[in-house]
Design a protein that fits this description.
Elements lengths: L14 H9 L6 H11 L7 E5 L5 H9 L5 E6 L9 E5 L5 H11 L4 E6 L16 H15 E12 L4 H11 E7 L10 E9 L12 H4 L1 H24 L21 E3 H6 L3 H7 L2 E3 L3 H8 L5 H8 L6 H18 L1 H8 L1 H52 L7 H12 L2 H6 L2 H14 L18 H37 L1 H16 L21 H17 L4 H14 L1 H8 L4 H14 L9 H7 L9 H5 L4 H24 L23 H14 L4 H11 L5 H7 L14 H10 L8 H16 L3 H30 L5 H16 L10 E4 L18 E4 L3 H20 L1
Parallel strand pairs: 1-2, 1-4, 2-3, 4-5, 8-9, 10-11
Antiparallel strand pairs: 5-7, 6-7
Helix pairs in contact: 2-3, 8-10, 14-15, 15-19, 16-19, 18-19, 21-25, 22-23, 23-24, 24-27, 29-32, 33-34
Bound molecules: S-adenosylmethionine.
S-adenosylmethionine binds next to helix 3.
């Protein structure tokens, strides 16, 4: 919303007022005509203009400025207008025949191209003489306009939005080809005035006098006015009170003769009046001006809140209005307005009480209505959210977005899934939520929200319902966001080659980096909690270890361990394929190790917990980590045979004890396997080819070489919060962003940076391919030239009819040419600026030898200025 313009006090002196002063216009209203003319351009080609209600003459000044030099301009007003060059003015009432005669006398048989009317009753010094209302004044000016306008002419009039407005517009439309209502920027927002520009006057031969007769034009309105006003505006007023947040437009226009937007009501009227609610909805302020009212102000019941509320009713809420009504009742009681009737007359008392009861009832009815509306709004919002969901699904089906699996999954879960409870955390709330969901789901499994049946009754349910709704909306939004993000990436990929390259690089680096322990994919495990690996798993393994210490033959534990080990390990897959291999025995050995505290006796408690994570289950790398530990290795070897047998046993016992879930080959992409030779080979090949390219890598390499860290330390450091970061269920845009910033901040040393810089410098020193090619070409050509010169020299030498001296001279010349660079030096062209002594000189300027070119010092600047102006003009035309 723009700044509120003021019509009174210093607010009047706005920028147009100042501009008018600066530019010598008599009234700021001059800018209204300037802006109207800018939009409709009716003055430039007008040869005759009549300005009705023209004092003090601002519009006349504008007309005189914008119309062609020899045009006729006539100005009429109730009050005399000070002379303006090229303008004829006279004082007359435009509603009288005398005025018409005066204009006729001035125009003779001429017709006007433009008739302007900016009249307003009660404005100017002669307001007492003005018996007409604004609308009637407009109709009178139209009467004059149709008499004096030429065919195709323009009539510009000021109209106030009132009940007559539509009737006036209807009449204009009967007489003009184009009718447009507009409010120029210089017209204050607080003013109800608008301007109607009627173009293309049809000049009918006969005009029905009823069109110009106020009694006929405004007839319908006069009769309908009360019916409409009584009903709708009273309702509106009430609605204003009880729904202050909803701005109601003045669709019925302003009350006739009342063009003010700010209305003040005396507190006495409010307190004593019969319909306080209607009053509250229509006025802006309740004032305390009389002595009695001021006394009310000082009373205890008139709290500071009430005072503040009375100051600006338009900003009040429902509660404030209720407080005001209560205050009114209390004051009435205090004043004895209600008591008096009680004491004196029984009958009147009943009437008064009824009124109070009515008010209360009215309030409660309104409140009920508001509640119903709020419920309807919630329903509408819900329907909208469903629509959004539908659209998202449709877009997905139309391949407009990438599949929004995550969003949809989440949505499904939130509809009926139990897993949602885990996501939400708090048990209490989750239980409540279950109840909520239960009420939401109908017998046939349909969601209650989809049908248009009644809302949940219990308050609790409503809260849950709205919670659920909000959550679902959030998920819908997230899904949409994901889709949009994917679409954005697709677009970027299509458009921006750079983005493509960056993405490829990122993918590459992701593949090469240690990206943490990945969750098992495709697990059909019931409690698919989002977190896998990390602390939860460690804790789980720890618990497991403890329980297995108590009861190593616990079937349940077996199956859990079996599941997790199988899902987390490539080795386990191999084992399943061929359980007789030695790898299988190793796998089985590890599993047994977890179950039997005996086998892990040599490992510390912390290490035991750490390696009890499922991801280590299939990695021989664990052994690799403890490679140096000979004891453990020997122990492992000793146990291998027993464990192999156990493995076979457990495998033969059936799937209940040990279930191996096959994993997708892709799952290994991010798995770290120190014994994966291929991975190492690829990395080594890259390092061989490019060397170490990051300062972090160089730092680590240097530290390793200098024995500042050991290999084991390095591996241990690899297990950090970044590596155990679960990515499940996270939106892709978040992961993309995280991949940029959620990285370990490895230390780098000065030496590492210096080493890399040195390497970079050496690389920079190498010429790029094109330069090398150009150099080679140059060399090749020089070689060719030399060979050619040698051949020529031989030829010269072989010539018999030349003396030795001549031969020597010729050969020297040929060889010089052969050894030269082959390019002729370009002769310089001297630039002579045509200023000072050279200005206006024709032919060669004095003192200039050789090739020259004359330039004008201003040429460039002028060309640029010209272009600038052209560009600005083009822009202006477009806008
Ligand atoms: C807003 S002023 C016009 C300002 C003018 N357009 C200007 O730019 O200076 C309205 C004028 O209408 C004039 N007016 C009101 N009723 C009139 C009538 N019946 N006949 C002639 N003039 C009238 C008032 O005297 C007043 O000067």
């Amino acid at each position: 919303m723009g700044k509120v313009q003021k019509k009174t006090g210093k607010g009047r002196l706005d920028k147009y007022y100042k501009l008018a002063k600066e530019q010598g216009y008599r009234a700021r209203s001059a800018f209204k005509l300037i802006q109207l003319n800018k939009k409709y351009a009716f003055l430039e080609n007008a040869r005759c203009t009549i300005d009705l209600c023209a004092a003090p003459g601002g519009w006349l000044q504008v007309a005189s400025k914008y119309m062609p030099v020899n045009s006729v301009i006539i100005g009429v007003d109730l009050v005399p207008i000070k002379p303006i060059p090229r303008v004829v003015t006279f004082a007359s009432d435009i509603t009288t025949p005398q005025c018409r005669n005066l204009i006729r006398g001035e125009l003779k048989d001429w017709k006007a191209d433009v008739v302007l009317h900016d009249g307003a009753p009660n404005v100017g010094t002669a307001w007492i003489q003005d018996a007409y209302s604004q609308s009637e004044l407009v109709l009178m000016s139209l009467k004059l306009a149709v008499e004096f306008l030429a065919k195709g002419g323009t009539f510009v009039t000021k109209v106030f939005r009132s009940v007559d407005y539509n009737n006036l517009i209807w009449v204009f439309n009967q007489l003009f080809g184009k009718v447009e209502a507009t409010k120029p920027p210089s017209s204050r927002n607080v003013s109800a005035e608008i301007f109607v520009v009627c173009r293309d006057f049809l000049a009918p031969k006969v005009i029905d006098p009823k069109f110009l007769d106020p009694r006929h034009v405004f007839k319908d309105v006069a009769t309908a006015e009360h019916a409409v006003d009584k009903g709708s505006s009273a309702n509106n007023a009430q609605a204003n009170v009880f729904q202050p947040e909803k701005k109601r437009r003045h669709r019925d226009g302003y009350a006739d003769g009342d063009y003010t937007l700010h209305k003040t009501l005396s507190s006495a009227e409010f307190v004593r009046g019969p319909d306080p609610i209607a009053v509250l909805g229509t006025v802006n302020k309740i004032s305390f001006t009389t002595e009695e009212e001021k006394e009310w102000l000082a009373m205890d019941i008139t709290s500071p809140d009430i005072k503040a509320n009375c100051d600006d009713l338009k900003v009040l809420g429902k509660g404030d209005f209720k407080a005001l009504l209560k205050w009114r009742l209390a004051l009435r009681e205090e004043l004895g307005l209600d008591n008096k009737t009680k004491d004196t007359e029984e009958l009147t008392e009943t009437v008064e009480i009824t009124e109070e009861v009515d008010e209360e009832q009215q309030i409660s009815e309104e409140l009920e209505r508001l509640n119903a509306e709020a419920a309807a709004r919630t329903k509408r919002d819900r329907r909208r959210a469903n629509e959004v969901k539908q659209r998202t699904i449709q877009r997905m089906q139309l391949q407009m977005t990438a599949p929004l699996d995550i969003g949809l999954e989440q949505m499904d879960m939130s509809l009926g899934g139990q897993d949602d409870i885990f996501d939400l955390g708090g048990t209490e709330r989750s239980l409540q939520k279950q109840g909520g969901i239960a009420t939401l789901i109908g017998e046939d499994g349909d969601l209650a929200e989809d049908s248009d049946e009644e809302e949940p009754e219990a308050e609790n349910d409503e809260v849950l319902d709205s919670d659920e709704e909000r959550e679902r909306k959030m998920q819908g939004l997230e899904a949409e966001l994901d889709g949009l993000y994917d679409a954005y990436q697709d677009r970027m990929r299509e458009r921006d080659a750079k983005f493509k390259v960056m993405e490829a690089r990122r993918n590459n680096s992701e593949r090469e980096e240690w990206s943490g322990i990945q969750a098992k994919a495709g697990s059909d495990d019931g409690d698919a909690s989002g977190e896998e690996g990390g602390w939860d798993k460690m804790q789980q393994a720890k618990d497991l270890g403890d329980s297995s210490a108590d009861d190593s033959s616990d079937d349940e534990n077996d199956s859990v361990v079996g599941n997790e080990v199988s899902a987390g390990s490539k080795r386990t897959r191999d084992a399943r394929r061929d359980p007789s291999t030695s790898q299988v025995s190793k796998r089985a050995r590890l599993i047994t190790k977890l179950e039997e505290p005996k086998s892990s006796a040599s490992v510390s408690k912390a290490a035991q917990v750490w390696f009890s994570q499922d991801v280590f289950a299939g990695l021989d790398g664990i052994d690799g980590v403890d490679e140096d530990d000979d004891d453990t290795a020997v122990e492992d070897e000793d146990m291998a045979v027993d464990e192999e047998e156990q493995w076979k046993d457990s495998a033969s016992e059936g799937e209940d004890d040990f279930e191996v879930v096959p994993r997708e080959p892709d799952d290994d992409v991010n798995m770290w396997n120190p014994e994966d030779e291929n991975e190492d080979e690829v990395k080594q090949a890259k390092i061989q080819k490019l060397g170490l390219i990051t300062p972090e890598a160089v730092t680590i390499a240097q530290q390793l070489v200098n024995r500042q860290i050991t290999k084991t330390q390095l591996i241990n450091d690899g297990f950090n919060r970044y590596s155990l970061n679960s990515k499940d269920g996270l939106p892709s845009w978040f992961l993309d962003d995280e991949s940029k910033f959620y990285k370990p901040n490895l230390p780098i040393t000065k030496e590492a940076v210096a080493a890399l810089r040195e390497k970079q410098r050496a690389l920079d020193a190498r010429p790029i391919k094109k330069v090398a090619e150009a150099k080679a070409r140059k060399k090749f050509k020089a070689h060719q030239r030399l060979e050619k010169a040698l051949k020529k020299a031989e030829g010269v030498n072989a010539t018999a009819d030349m003396s030795e001296r001549e031969k020597a001279q010729q050969i020297e010349k040929v060889m010089r040419k052969g050894l030269s660079s082959g390019t002729k030096a370009k002769k310089d062209i001297k630039v002579v600026v045509a200023k000072g002594a050279h200005k206006g000189v024709k032919g060669r300027p004095k003192g200039v030898k050789g090739r020259y070119t004359m330039v004008d010092s201003r040429m460039k600047k002028e060309l640029r200025a010209k272009k600038r102006v052209e560009k600005a003009n083009k822009k202006r035309k477009k806008s």
